[in-house]
User: What shape does this take?
Amino acid sequence: MRLVLLGPPGAGKGTQARALATLWGIPQVSSGDLLRTVVREDSELGREAASYMDRGQLVPDELVLKLIDERLRKKDARKGFILDGFPRNVMQAEALAKGLDKAGLKLDKAVAVIVPDEEIVKRISGRRTCAKCNAMYHVAFEPPKKPGVCDKCGGELYQREDDAEETVRERLKVFAEATRPLLDYYGRLGLLEQVDGVGRTDDVEKRILSAVNGVAPPPN
Assistant: This one.
């Protein structure tokens, strides 16, 4: 199974990708996780990526494509993968298709998780991250027992720069301009399915499974 999950930041793609990856026994490949890893490593590539991410801007295609290509070449991705946060535009989608074609492979489905902008702002701007262990919380949906303090290690909780409301709205604007044309692209190829991303996590998962019925492998 080779699946692309589309949707704005905060739509729940990562949560769904992790659940489906476990269900199907294939890796979740998150462009965001790959980028955050190189940023933490403080490499030249990471510093370049951070300069865009901190402003809510998309990281240049060339940089993202390099990271994705390296990841998909690993052994665990040979029998399938779930792409989370990639591709973000038609050029990236075309580059992905060419790379898969060279390997004699093809994408099975592209599922778009649809969530209203105001719901996205509420979800993301309420996030808090532990400075010590990187545990995640939400001031409304999953608050810590003590405000501003991590339940797991006692570390200080903070709001990442790219989770601030102003940055979130900029990210949504960028998404609307650069990423939504992907819906048309995958629609023309007959690969697109759209699902409602509002509601309980397990309900959204069921909608995705229903959307890929007949294509997805049975659970492990």
Q: What stands out?
A: The mean pLDDT is 90.
